[in-house]
Each structure stands twice: as C-alpha cells, then as structure tokens.
Amino acid sequence: MKLYKLMRKPPFFLSASHWMTKKDQPVKSGPNSRQAVIIPLLLIQYGSISAKLKAMTTLKNYLVSSIKGMRISAKGLQHNPHSGKRIIDEKTLKEMEDYAKQLGISNIGYTKVNPNYVFKDFEILYDKAIMFTMEMNKQLIATSPSLESNKEIFRTYAGLGTAVNKIADFLRENGFNCHPSPAIGGDINTVPTAQDANLGCVGKNGILVTPEFGPCVRLAGIFVDIDNLPISDQKDHRWIADFCKTCNRCVKSCPAGAIYQEPKVLKDGTHVYIDLEKCAPPFSDGCSTCISSCVFTSGQYDRIKSAFKSKTEAY
Ligand code: SF4
Ligand code: SF4
Fold it and tell me: Per the confidence metrics, is the pTM higher than 0.85?
C-alpha cells in the first residue's frame, strides 16, 4: 500500500481550503493538474531506517517549523483585510521586495498562475503569484549525500515557510489580500510556476535551474489579487531546456537512476522528471547529487550560455 498515493492532501487543519469562506471564489485545479505528493509520507515509506532515526533527531526542529508554517499560512487566510485595494504603488512593492530579501529571499518573480499547476483537488484564493527563490548553501549541498545536505534542504524549506508568512503579514498590513503557499505543503507545482515568472527554467533534474544559483534553491509563493504586478512575459532562461538535452550530467550522476532521460508524459499530459520511489531512499539519506552535480550550480550561467549559443549557432 503506497502511503503517498493514499493521502494526497494535508490534514484539513493545515489546508488552505478549510479556511476559505463561501464568499471566496478560489481558482480550482485544471484538467491537467498533477496529484500532490506529500514528501514526508514518501520518505516514511521508502526512506532507510537509519535516515528516519537521524531525521527524528536532526531535522525535527525544521519539520516542526515547516508544519507550523503550513498552519499559519492556511489559518492566516481569515486575516485578509478585504479592503478592495488591488493596486500596489511602486514604493510599497519595493518595500515588500526589500523586506523579502531581509528574510533570506534570493529572487522574486511575478506571474499569473496556470490552473494546471494547482495540484489536483487543491484550490488557491487568487490567480496571480509572487514567486520566491531561496538559495541553499552550495558548500553544504556539495557534501551530498550527507546529514549536512539534508539539514540544509530542510532549513531552507522552513526558512521559506517563515518568510512567506511574514511577507503575507506585510501585504495584509498594507491592505492587500493574499494566500501564502509554503515550500512544504504548498498548493501548486512551484517549479513551472517559477519558470513562468522568469526565475529560471525547469531542468532535466525536475528542479528550477536559476541563473544565479543553478538548481541550488527552493521555491515558495504567495497568491494575490493585485491587478498591477509587474508580471513577466519574458522567457530568458528557456534555452536551458535545450542545453539539458546535451548535458545529462544529473542523469548520469544520480545514484538511484531516478532521473528520466526524457521526462515521462503522463496520461493527463503533464511531465514527470523523477521516479520518486527510486529517489526516496537516497534522498532520505541526504542525497542532493542532482543539485551538486549540475553545471549551473557553480554559478557559470553567462559562460555556459555564450558557449552553448556559439556552438548551436555554428550548426
Ligand atoms: S536526490 Fe539523489 S536520488 Fe533523488 S533524483 Fe536527485 S540525485 Fe537522484
Ligand atoms: S546537470 Fe545538466 S542536464 Fe541536469 S539539470 Fe543541470 S544542466 Fe540540465
């Protein structure tokens, strides 16, 4: 029996839907939406015993913080001001961005949410998203597979959960409604949504490859009904998808053979990059090799781009 397939949603008290009211008109998942996977359930079932014991002691604080963050995000919907304010001025937007950076956010992008990226049977209150990346420490991730790299991943999950809730408080204090969606227990597939916000490109490892940090980041978002966000229609980083076809370094370096050479297209048309059941045992032991081995993790974006462009233009 597969636990993560049996339970596709967090318990009601951690779920945003539970705190929505009859007046709300949430965005529902689309016809091609993917099922959510509750990663801790996958790790409980497939992770190694020693990893579970280590996780209990070492990651406990981060997991507790992440669960508290989920609860605050969901319950906080009842504090939306419903002021009717839907235009943000440049000064407030800049203040929000500066505040986000103080909270450890690395980069910020804006997009309209594709309903197909809302997890199946989930709903979000508003259709625009402010997407956030948070860098993970490259040196710690480079120790993969290790307890240090595992801690760094869960530290970032917890940090993002805290950050999106504090930014939501800032937006509400300024009169805006919002729905923060943390990195663990979020409501959408953050990777393609962050790609839509021009923060990077979905790599062959299924992770957002960013120009600044490669895939050495985690993601979260806040949904808002602000009408004048600087939504990007740029696709500056999509060339990475072509580069990945020539690279395959993460595919070769994955110790579990869990990264598909070509993404698997599911019946509903969505793309899956990783065999989660194969990935779970090494991941629970701190594997992040698909991040540490990626050529973009060393921060060579411009050099790789110009070399790749010269090579492809030569043909
Ligand atoms: S975390 Fe490790 S096992 Fe999982 S896909 Fe990445 S490299 Fe493979
Ligand atoms: S290692 Fe290579 S193939 Fe894998 S995500 Fe990075 S660039 Fe793409």
Answer: yes
